[in-house]
């Protein structure tokens, strides 16, 4: 058994570093004095292999992945009680993924006794339960396939971990699809017989998409007039500006039907929010806001804000369910691939989950990318066109909610969500909220009038004068 006491020390403690070195040496010796082992730090998360010295450096600087730190067996590093026990737990390769999708053990029973479903016919309830059971069986089959060893005697990589490792290297180093395809075609011939490695990028993407980790592609008008969805799904031209939906060959003027000029990428939020409650630890963290409001009047988290309290007072039934989600929306443009000399701009739309504690809600892995609005120009005031699918899902979560399984309480509930506020700079604020941010009646000018004609504003202006902050700087 590997020594785990050192991981609970402060990383500044010399004992932590010596413990990390002992851990690395023990793992390396157990695996045959190898120079590279799987790195369990917060960033590598047992996917990337690193030199032993680099693993120690990562552990000291970044710390160990929290989920792995508290795990009873460090199975990625050979710390299992027996081979039979390891083989009897086929889900250990992807425990976090498995937890997210794990079927609700008491789902059928809970569903039958739900008060808000009492008016539904028994047949409808059984159909819903059967649908959930079928989804569970399908996902378990996918998990078993993903956990297949890369080749019969492989103990370090499963089919999924090998694909994720290579995909991460491709992304970090900017490999082209062509070079990645060639690598995938070459690797199987270098691996032992019986390997299950995919031989093309298409197959890899198809495999990853089967876990519902993909996105929806929605064709958009090249002039940002509309999205070709629902009633407009079959149209070839924009009903407003008459622009073609499809690209045109500049040499022959031939329309390339099936190749859209502009594509919006939407990452659906409802299944992602539901999956968060399938993890027992995450379901517990999503309740943090309910019992951790500040008692000394100081603002340490949005739960301590006036807006949060006002929304609780206005919608008491929503506030009564501690698992209901509060969200913040943020958007801005950026130039992809460091093309600062180009006018191409993409606009991501992000959601922040404020149910989580302060040390988690702003972590990059917990900030949800929901929309990726394409360029080359910013959407401007037409951003509302691209927000349609997201707003529809938010409206559904606010009005109707979604039946969700909670792994922490082992029960089901109706998950609802509200959008508390948006976060953006003034230009994006002008587009997003429809406010003027320049000119005679801009938001800045209105704020200046407020400062000059209210008691609070006058006091603020007096403080600004004492601090020698001129109006030109403030406005």
UniProtKB/TrEMBL annotation:
Pfam families: Transpos_assoc, Transposase_21
Entry-linked InterPro entries: Transpos_assoc, Transposase_21
Superkingdom, taxonomy of origin: Eukaryota
The Transposase-associated domain, residue ranges: 4-78
PANTHER family on file: OS08G0208400 PROTEIN, TRANSPOSON, EN_SPM-LIKE, TRANSPOSASE-ASSOCIATED DOMAIN PROTEIN-RELATED
Protein name: Uncharacterized protein LOC104784141
Originating organism: Camelina sativa (False flax)
């Amino acid at each position: 058994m590997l020594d785990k006491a050192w991981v609970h020390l402060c990383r500044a403690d010399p004992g932590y570093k010596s413990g990390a070195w002992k851990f690395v040496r023990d793992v390396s010796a157990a695996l045959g004095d190898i120079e590279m082992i799987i790195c369990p730090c917060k960033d590598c998360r047992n996917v990337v292999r690193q030199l032993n010295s680099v693993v120690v450096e990562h552990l000291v600087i970044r710390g160990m992945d929290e989920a792995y730190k508290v795990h009873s067996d460090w199975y990625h590093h050979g710390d299992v009680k027996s081979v039979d026990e390891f083989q009897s737990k086929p889900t250990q390769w992807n425990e976090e993924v498995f937890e997210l999708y794990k079927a609700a053990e008491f789902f059928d029973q809970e569903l039958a006794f739900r008060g808000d479903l009492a008016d539904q016919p028994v047949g409808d309830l059984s159909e819903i339960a059967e649908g959930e059971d079928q989804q569970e069986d399908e996902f378990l089959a996918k998990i078993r396939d993903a956990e297949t060893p890369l080749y019969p005697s492989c103990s370090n990589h499963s089919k999924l971990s090998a694909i994720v490792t290579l995909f991460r290297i491709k992304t970090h180093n900017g490999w082209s699809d062509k070079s990645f395809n060639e690598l995938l075609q070459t690797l199987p011939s270098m691996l032992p017989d019986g390997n299950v490695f995919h031989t093309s990028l298409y197959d890899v993407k198809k495999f990853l998409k089967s876990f519902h980790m993909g996105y929806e592609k929605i064709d958009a008008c090249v002039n940002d007039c509309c999205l070709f969805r629902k009633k407009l799904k079959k149209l070839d031209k924009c009903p407003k500006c008459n622009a073609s939906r499809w690209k045109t060959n500049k040499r022959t003027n031939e329309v390339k039907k099936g190749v859209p000029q502009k594509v919006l990428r939407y990452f659906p939020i409802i299944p992602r929010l539901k999956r968060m409650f399938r993890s027992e630890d995450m379901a517990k963290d999503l309740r943090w806001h309910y019992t951790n409001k500040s008692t000394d009047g100081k603002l340490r988290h949005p739960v301590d804000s006036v807006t949060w309290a006002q929304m609780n007072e206005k919608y008491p039934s929503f506030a009564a369910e501690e698992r209901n989600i509060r969200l913040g929306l943020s958007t801005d443009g950026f130039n992809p691939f460091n093309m600062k000399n180009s006018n191409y701009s993409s606009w991501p739309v992000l959601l922040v989950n404020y149910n989580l504690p302060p040390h988690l809600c702003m972590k990059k892995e917990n900030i949800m990318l929901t929309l990726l609005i394409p360029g080359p120009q910013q959407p401007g005031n037409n951003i509302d066109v691209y927000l349609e699918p997201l707003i529809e899902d938010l409206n559904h979560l606010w009005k109707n909610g979604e039946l969700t399984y909670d792994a922490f309480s082992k029960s089901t509930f109706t998950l609802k969500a509200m959008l508390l506020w948006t976060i953006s700079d003034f230009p994006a604020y002008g587009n997003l909220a429809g406010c003027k941010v320049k000119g005679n009646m801009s938001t800045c000018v209105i704020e200046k009038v407020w400062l000059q004609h209210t008691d609070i504003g006058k006091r603020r202006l007096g403080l600004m004068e004492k601090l020698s902050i001129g109006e030109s700087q403030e406005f």
